[in-house]
User: Fold this.
Amino acid sequence: MRSKELLKAMMATAILLAIAAPVAAAPQVATPDETIPEVGSFYQQDPADEAYRAARERLNRGEYRRAAEMFAEVYRRYPTSSYAAQALYYQAFALYRNGRERDLRAAEDALRQLQGRYADEEVAQRDAEELLARVQGELARRGDAAAGEDVARRAQGIGAGGQEEVCEDEIRIAALNALLQMNSEQALPILERVLADRSDDACSVEMRRKAVFLLSQHVDEGNVDLLLDVVQNDPDAEVRHQAVFWLSQVPGERTVDALEDILQTSDDPELQNKAIFSLSQVHSDRAGQILRDYAMREDADPELRAQAIFWLGQSHGEENAEFLREIYASTEEYEIKEKIIFSLAQLGDDESASWLLRVAADANEPLEMRKKALFWAGQSHVLSIEEMGELYNRMPEREMKEQIIFALSQRHEEGAVDWMLEIARTEEDVELRKKAIFWLSQSDDPRVAEFLLELIEGGGS
Assistant:
């Protein structure tokens, strides 16, 4: 009798702690009543006006995923529209509000693109910087060290390049931009001279950064050598990195050759990382093969290999999916395995979900990998609630059972609550019952409230 009373007391304590505790799921990046910032203006005569207003309506209704897609479409269809910069900003804002890690990274990319392509727009300056700080703050809270460093710099009032200075050559850049629109053949030699000035004073560096962007708007395969010279010889890291990014926008095999050379021979990991991204944006079989070959290199930097694997996973091709499964079986690198699991989970196809489930059930796999595979398999919805429950009954390890309880808590089907109620009622392991009770307490299913009251009043076993 005493042990039964002790068990009830432990259950009641767990219930009260669960009710009082904050939700331990992924943190919310914005409160529901957060005001949507107003940036830019409306331009009724602009061809993008109707599409932009429709996207804003979705955003105002809180349909963040759809709003992000619609703003991205505005930017893609009308890159020269008066709404283009605003669309990029609100795409980032909607992704930020959606809140998943991949959404936050996509928001960061959109803001970087906004600051690169539309650097002179007001929204690309203060508004974008403020939102970027919030996005990076959330990424930092989720363990992103690089984002954490940027947040720390902002907190100290220091920019990534030190104290910001005003360059007197802004008018010259504006004039170059205008000249490019009117007569690119006349402007390109001037850009070359700007890029050839390798002085380290703030104005020269700022001029070169903007010149790389301007060149990217009119570059063709014949100008790959100019960008490649910047990549190899400019003393400013940001200028070099921008040149690598814009190389990916130049069609042709010479671009692929240049990016491969950077990836294979550079001693600058950040530059190599940019080359990996740029190769992933070049839609050619050879670019994909270069990334696959690099991902297989055991002598390469694991973080760079992981980035190659990530971008291969974004291509949604069966060839890459099969390749990633093969690498997983052949490597012992923790980071590589983790990235493969994440990348395959993003594909959302039946084969990848089944593979994740096989990894989760394989007792020879590292426990952390099994837990990650199980979580993502549960999120794919290819694995039914009934299958997850049966898997719970078969799993011998407590940690794997805990992971299944967590995965069930992230599913919003009625059957998920049924299974967690069953675990909370009948599981012999007290700690597992407490886990189930905690996650049940986060649900608004009316059966949960009844069950918790039943336990508190002594009706549970």
